[in-house]
């Protein structure tokens, strides 16, 4: 299988036109974060869920005033970076799913080589 999704999920929050990530009510050391710090613009800060049911449960407990999105984490086989956006198809074999940034890079390279 070419899709190497890592089967982990994060909660995205629509913030203006950006997506922020839900960090959780407390950090790994059990310290309660400031309510304003429950969301981060960095994917690396996002709370990860490997069980979609637990994620949905936690989602239910969050304020309904915000718009949430369940995002699946994937790791790009080219640059090894994690991403949640819709993957691009590699031009190398037309089946490997890579991150959008690598997708653009491959497209630019293909254009230059014409
Ligand atoms: Zn990549």
Summarize, please:
With 114 residues, this protein is of the alpha+beta class. It has two helices and seven strands. The protein has a five-stranded antiparallel sheet with strand order 3-2-1-4-5, with helices on one face.
Descriptive report:
The chain has about 110 residues and is α+β, with helices and mostly antiparallel strands. The chain folds into two domains: about 5-75, no CATH class; about 85-114, no CATH class. It is about 20% helix and about 30% strand. It has two helices and seven strands. The chain has helices spanning about 50-60, 100-114, and strands at about 5-15, 20, 40, 70-75, 80-85, 90, 95-100. The strands form two sheets. It has a five-stranded antiparallel beta sheet, covered by helices on one side. Strands 6-7 form a two-stranded antiparallel ribbon. Strand 6 (about 90) and strand 7 form a beta hairpin. The longest helix is centred in the C-terminal third of the chain and has 14 residues, at about 100-114. It is elongated, with a radius of gyration of 17 Å. The mean pLDDT is about 85. The protein binds zinc ion. Zinc ion binds near residues 79, 98, 99 and 102.
Topology record:
Layout: E1 5-15, E2 18-22, E3 39-40, H1 52-60, E4 68-75, E5 82-83, E6 88-89, E7 97-98, H2 100-113
Antiparallel strand pairs: 1-2, 1-4, 2-3, 4-5, 6-7
The structure holds zinc ion.
Order of helices and strands: EEEHEEEEH
What characterizes the major β-sheet? 5 strands, antiparallel
Supply Rg.
17 Å
β-strand percent reads: 25-35%
The structural class is: alpha+beta
Unreliable spans are none
- Count of helical regions: 2
Number of separate strands:
7
Mean pLDDT: 85
Number of structural domains: 2
Morphology call: elongated
Beginning-to-end CA distance, first to last residue? 30 Å
- Fraction of residues in H or I helices: 10-25%
The neighbouring-strand order within the major sheet is 3-2-1-4-5
Small molecules (ligands, ions, cofactors) in the structure: zinc ion
């Amino acid at each position: 299988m070419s899709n190497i999704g890592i089967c982990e999920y994060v909660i995205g929050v629509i913030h203006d036109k950006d997506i922020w990530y839900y960090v959780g009510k407390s950090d790994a050391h059990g310290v309660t974060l400031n309510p304003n710090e429950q969301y981060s613009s960095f994917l690396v800060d996002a709370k990860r869920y490997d069980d979609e049911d637990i994620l949905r449960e936690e989602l239910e407990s969050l304020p309904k005033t915000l718009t949430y999105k369940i995002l699946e984490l994937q790791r790009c086989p080219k640059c090894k970076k994690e991403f949640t956006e819709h993957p691009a198809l590699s031009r190398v074999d037309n089946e490997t799913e890579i991150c959008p940034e690598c997708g653009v890079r491959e497209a630019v390279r293909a254009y230059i080589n014409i």
